[in-house]
């Protein structure tokens, strides 16, 4: 039970990294807490940035998304004062998203990795990473049969998300920047075709509502939600009534209703661990930084960081050149903070301040002005497009 690189987590970050390292002939293994079926079906992201697609293409990992994904370049903002559309695919750098469900991407990455002979252990939970300051870090695990085990490595890649073992094993010197945006969403997957040919962002006095296409039969919706209320507190009727009202369907036409097949409460929080490297422990994806999902950046950052980390580890193992590993954290943090800033901007655009005092009134007036500027200023629209689809 040893490998040169032990990768924790089989999400977009861990599986991209595993594919790239294995293709370069580097001895690696992926340890994944969940079982195979869970990994292949966990529905989360859906909007892949152009750069993410380029990375996957570069490494021969984009066949599935080219076959089944579809390009997307329009969003629509709805307010009490009407609506406007931005064809962001023709603004900024002229880049589009590819809509491709995260579980399909993960399934493709997993299939490719296994077909190439990559090693993975499902139902193997990393408990802690030890001796990260030395040349032989170890990972203590609980094996699929419940027994404790230990893996030895040269490097450990922490791709096991925000609540994983990598984060729990960070030395005290690691900085954790955290922000709670004070906004909660109810994330929904509805068994219904998309109702708009655009991403829909609705700003209503009752709160935010969002619409995002996934497939021909499944649509993701978000509803701003009372913090602390359990996700199952609202009936489907109440959810659809709220979506209809907040999406201003009386003016813009009805939504396709359908069974709600998944719901989750999402507190909009952002965090960043700094630096991303602690000796022989390297973080990537949500383990390194969680951008609040308002800007759809998490999976895209995960793939970008996985490529940068793979390149750095390949330099280290093939040429004993550690310069890219030394630069890894700094390079990622530049992208991470850009994504964090834009997610923060989106949250402030989409949500009214909670209070009814003078301060809240001031912030609400600024927010309305921001929306108006986005509606009318080509320069502002170019900036939006560049940040919205860029990474
Ligand atoms: P994960 O996908 O979380 O994978 C981590 C893996 O590690 C999991 O398989 C987990 O089981 C495993 N693991 C955890 N702990 C352990 C352990 N101790 N030992 C072993 N394995 C472990 N991002 C976008 O870019 N675009 C979007 O449109 C978008 N929409 C989203 C919508 C929702 C509702 C949510 C919740 C997120 C969304 N995101 C989006 C964010 C995106 O899903 C994540 O950023 C992305 O999954 C991060 O990938 P990852 O590989 O770092 O982590």
Question: Which helices and strands, and how do they pair?
Answer:
Layout: E1 5-8, H1 12-23, E2 28-31, H2 36-41, E3 47-48, H3 50-58, H4 63-68, E4 70-72, E5 75-79, E6 82-86, E7 97-99, H5 102-115, E8 119-121, E9 125-130, E10 138-142, E11 148-152, E12 155-158, H6 165-168, E13 175-191, E14 199-204, E15 207-213, E16 219-225, H7 236-246, H8 249-252, E17 259-274, E18 277-278, E19 281-283, E20 289-290, H9 298-319, H10 323-350, H11 358-376, H12 378-389
Parallel strand pairs: 1-2, 1-12, 2-8, 5-14, 12-19
Antiparallel strand pairs: 3-7, 4-7, 5-6, 9-10, 10-11, 13-16, 13-17, 14-15, 15-16, 17-20, 18-19
Helix pairs in contact: 1-5, 1-9, 3-9, 9-10, 11-12
């Amino acid at each position: 039970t040893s490998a040169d690189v032990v990768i924790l987590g089989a999400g977009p970050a861990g599986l991209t990294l595993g594919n790239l390292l294995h293709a370069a002939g580097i001895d690696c293994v992926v340890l994944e807490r969940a079982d195979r079926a869970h990994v292949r079906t966990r529905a989360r992201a859906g909007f892949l940035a152009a750069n993410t697609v380029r990375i996957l293409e570069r490494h021969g990992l984009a066949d599935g998304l080219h076959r089944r994904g579809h390009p997307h370049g329009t969003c629509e903002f709805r307010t009490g004062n009407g609506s406007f559309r931005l064809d962001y695919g023709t603004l900024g750098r002229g880049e589009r998203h590819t809509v491709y469900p995260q579980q399909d991407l993960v399934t493709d990455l997993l299939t490719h990795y296994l077909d190439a002979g990559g090693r993975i252990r499902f139902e193997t939970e990393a408990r802690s990473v030890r001796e990260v300051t030395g040349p032989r870090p170890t990972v203590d695990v609980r094996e699929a049969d419940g027994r404790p085990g230990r893996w030895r490595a040269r490097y450990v890649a922490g791709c096991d998300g925000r609540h994983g073992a990598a984060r729990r094993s960070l030395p005290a010197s690691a900085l954790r920047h955290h922000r709670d945006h004070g906004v909660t969403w109810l994330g929904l997957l509805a068994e219904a075709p998309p109702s708009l040919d655009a991403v829909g962002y609705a700003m209503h006095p009752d709160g935010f509502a969002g619409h995002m296409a996934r497939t021909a039969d499944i649509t993701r919706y978000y509803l701003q939600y009372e913090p602390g209320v359990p996700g199952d507190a609202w009936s489907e009727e109440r959810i659809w009534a709220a979506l209809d009202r907040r999406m201003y369907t009386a003016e813009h036409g009805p939504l396709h209703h359908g069974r709600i097949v998944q719901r989750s409460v999402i507190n909009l929080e952002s965090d960043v661990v700094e630096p991303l490297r602690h000796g022989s422990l390297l973080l990537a994806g949500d383990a390194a930084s969680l951008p609040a999902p308002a800007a759809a950046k998490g999976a895209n950052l995960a793939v970008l960081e996985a490529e940068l980390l793979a390149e750095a580890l390949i330099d280290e193992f093939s040429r004993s050149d550690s310069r890219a590993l030394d630069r890894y954290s700094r390079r990622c943090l530049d992208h991470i903070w850009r994504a964090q800033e834009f997610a923060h901007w989106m949250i402030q655009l989409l949500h009214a301040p909670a209070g009814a005092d003078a301060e809240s009134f001031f912030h609400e007036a600024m927010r309305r002005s921001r929306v108006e500027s986005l509606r009318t200023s080509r320069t502002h629209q170019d900036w939006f497009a560049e940040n919205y689809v860029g990474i």
